[in-house]
Specification:
The protein is mainly alpha-helical. It has one domain. It contains five helices and four strands; from the N terminus they run E-E-H-H-H-E-E-H-H. The strands form two sheets. Strands 1-2 form a two-stranded antiparallel sheet. A two-stranded antiparallel sheet has the order 3-4. The longest helix has 22 residues.
Amino acid sequence: MRFSGVFFAAGLMIGPSASAQGLGLITEDIVAYCESQWPGDYVMFNDCFDRQVEAKQAFIAGLEHVKTGSQVDGIMSKCSKQWTGANGTDFVMVVDCATRQMDALTLYRQRKAPPLAGVELCDTPNTQCEDRILNK
């Protein structure tokens, strides 16, 4: 999975805040993580490193726009904890987790909101429900 340098956080498009030349301190943990995942495989280490740096930049940029204590803050914290282990953090999976959780939060908010007049929401795939919507 390649990131286009954009992280979608609760409807916001956020670009990475760190440049490739200014990586310095943010890559130290990534080196350790990728070495643990791909010992002796330098091609895979380099691929891992590139993907992890890009994902970490997106994650850091996303954190800059999140209000402490918000639902999005909770999602990002949960995903970060979920994908951090003894060998470090898998930032590719953290970003994937956070993106999927925020998409689900958006859908949850839509389903929780009062429905518009004449609009029916189907909570689960249901042919009868879909037929009623299509035939209105």
